[in-house]
Amino acid sequence: MRGIFGTRAEPDFEVFRSVIRGEKRPERVHLIELGVDIEVMKEITVSHLGREWREDPGALVRQEVDFYYSLGYETVVYSSRFLNVPEFAEHSAEDTAVLSRGRRNWAEEGTGIIRTREDLERIDWQAIKVERASFDSYKANLKPGMKLLLFTTLFESVLERWMGYEGLFNNLIEDPTLVEDMFSALGKKVLDFYSAFIEDDSVGGIMHADDMGFKTSTMISPKMLKKYLFPWLKEIGELAHDCGKLFILHSCGNLESVMDDLIDYVRIDALHSFQDEIMPITEFKMKYPSIAALGGIDIDKLARLHAEDVHKYVRKVLERCARDGRFALGSGNTVANYIPVENYLAMLAEAREFKL
Fold first, then answer.
1. pLDDT for residue 234 is more than 60
2. E-only strand ranges, the chain
3. Which residue range(s) make up the domain with 262?
């Protein structure tokens, strides 16, 4: 097939999985993304693939899958959809990105809708159900050789929406039982989502996302993460592994204090999300060779460098990471709409041209 940059291999998720697990040496550079902003998809679809872009929901799913297929990916991330979720306050400001969406939302820095035990008990958790129709739409549009990766959050949702940053941090001291019950209630819903689809043949694994850290440390103490979050992550991983599927963890921030637990207790197959300022993917791959390192192209560099410098930077990463497996190339986080399209395409071009 002809891709944007010439001939590319057809997707083969079984090979991708074997490379990620270290069971097979790669014959080409495999790609992965947690997400590409819809504005970037639209720009590339119209300006580089020469196709029309439609805004109706059915077309959006088809266009998203076609986008990943056309650019050489073997996976598409399917994000959780729940019915009857309580409304959350939204914070937004003008989006000044290159491909602006008008407004941009951000996390709840104060307190969320769960402030007290009465707030928690007021939620009708039984009414919150997994929505299934959108999954069927993604499944129907997959190309041969491609698989879906299931995606949702737990810690990040508690932190950024249900309790808020201040709400969670305060309650960890003032009412730890409320925090534990909050994780239990939401954790069960997370498991409901993964359990609903993990056995489907169109699913290749779970790409769970919980940003646990920042530049120098974890958001909360390792002891607290091990108490409130890691038992749930372990259960999610066991669910994936029992079905022969991958368990990938996306988490931003400095995780050195908990990496051994994530590998030995939670038993992740791979880590996604890297910042050079914290630990470059090249260093991580040497330090933790038993799991796969995914993504790794620093977002700051992808956003700020000129395209020719992106080529050089990506090539250096590939030289140190790509040849012995347990690796797939992508952005260090997601391809946001403030990243120049030419820089994103430069990264993909290096993947296609790199000789293993």
1. yes
2. 2-3, 6-7, 75-79, 82-83, 91-94, 103-106, 129-130, 147-151, 203-209, 246-250, 270-272, 292-297, 327-331
3. 2-353
The H or E element containing residue 237 is helix 230-242
Find the helix or strand (DSSP H, E) in which 318 lies: helix 307-321
Are the beta carbons of 191 and 226 closer than 8 angstroms? no
Give residue 73's pLDDT.
97
Q: By C-alpha distance, which of 167, 83, 181, 73 is closest to 128?
A: 83
CA distances from 286 to 28, 252, 267, 327 (A): 20, 19, 18, 12
- State the angle between helix axes of 133-141 and 57-71 in degrees (0 to 180), rounded to the nearest 10: 40
Site of tokens 């088809």: 62
Alpha carbons 113 and 121: distance in angstroms, whole number: 12
Q: How confident is the model at residue 109 (pLDDT cuts 50, 70, 90)?
A: confident
Q: If DSSP codes are grouped into helix, strand and coil, which group holds residue 76?
A: strand
- What whole-number distance in Å separates Cα of residue 211 and Cα of residue 258? 13
Distance CA 174, CA 169 (A): 9
CA gap 76, 64 in Å, rounded: 8
pLDDT of 280 over the 50 cut = yes
Rounded Cα distance, 33 and 29, in Å: 13
CATH of the domain at 106: 3.20.20.210
Q: Distance (Å, rounded) from C-alpha 38 to C-alpha 77?
A: 13
Q: Give the pLDDT confidence score for residue 316 in this predicted structure.
A: 98
Residue 57: CA count within 13 A, CB half-sphere: 5
What's the number of domains the chain is made of? 1
Residue range 15-24: average pLDDT?
A: 97
